[in-house]
């Protein structure tokens, strides 16, 4: 067993979550097919021999899709041991969650939200709408992922940009897991089929005509949760950075969780293109 796989097994058998790094690679993946997942996500399925050796071990791990520049040139990072050496200025890229990887059938799913910062369609969404089977896209990563051992309860939440990670996480939870998943979408058309354990309650929050990231629907719902006394809860939240700000305080000051027991990440920020927040 290689070093990072042994570390993943160690964390899963323990009591404290930890980020585990994987060797970072760039692969040239072929677009196999695309399709809508609900009304708010486009699924791009990648495959071919280029994805051989790809690794995927954590529900919130991410890859970067690297796009050609305006002049048509493509600038790729170069291998540097287990890392990558990126050219400067950085190539045009967008970051997405690994929704699914099937090494047997050589298939990698990336689900891309149709709205970007401020509710507009971004570069990745436009590409996902227009790309055709047979085209090649370069994928960098994942650089690793957050491995979470078993907890008594799980509290998950986010908007549609976090839905791919939430969907994968509830699928991969132990079937005996208990907890809650809150997902903010525009309306019922953006809901998708999930496969949570029987003890995990999924609540879809409809914001209606309000623009993404403009109301406190998600924060209000999450803060109504009551964790049974004496139980360990793990909290994972992602979405618009401003919406998550009060939830950081709530987790710290009201739930009084240890830093290792929660992960709250701004995936995007209203009015900011290509927002990047270190988890």
Describe the structure.
It is a single chain. The protein is of the alpha/beta class and 279 residues long. It folds into two domains: 3-144, Translation factors (Elongation Factor Tu (Ef-tu), domain 3), CATH 2.40.30; 150-268, Nucleotide-binding domain of ferredoxin-NADP reductase (FNR) module (Rossmann fold). 18% of the residues lie in helices and 34% in strands. The protein contains five helices and 16 strands. The chain has helices at residues 3-12, 123-130, 163-172, 217-223, 241-254, and strands at 18-21, 26-37, 41-47, 62-66, 78-80, 83-85, 93-97, 100-102, 107-113, 136-140, 144-147, 153-158, 178-185, 199-206, 233-240, 262-268. The chain has a seven-stranded antiparallel β-sheet. It has a five-stranded parallel β-sheet with strand order 14-13-12-15-16, with helices on both faces. α4 (217-223) packs parallel to α5. The protein is globular and about 55 Å long. The two termini are 28 Å apart.
Structural class: alpha/beta
CATH architecture of the largest domain: Beta Barrel
What is the count of β-strands?
16
Strand order of the largest sheet: 7-4-10-2-3-9-8
Mean pLDDT: 93
Number of domains: 2
The CATH superfamily of the largest domain turns out to be Translation factors
- In N-to-C order, the SSE pattern is HEEEEEEEEEHEEEHEEHEHE
According to CATH, the fold-level topology of the largest domain is Elongation Factor Tu (Ef-tu), domain 3
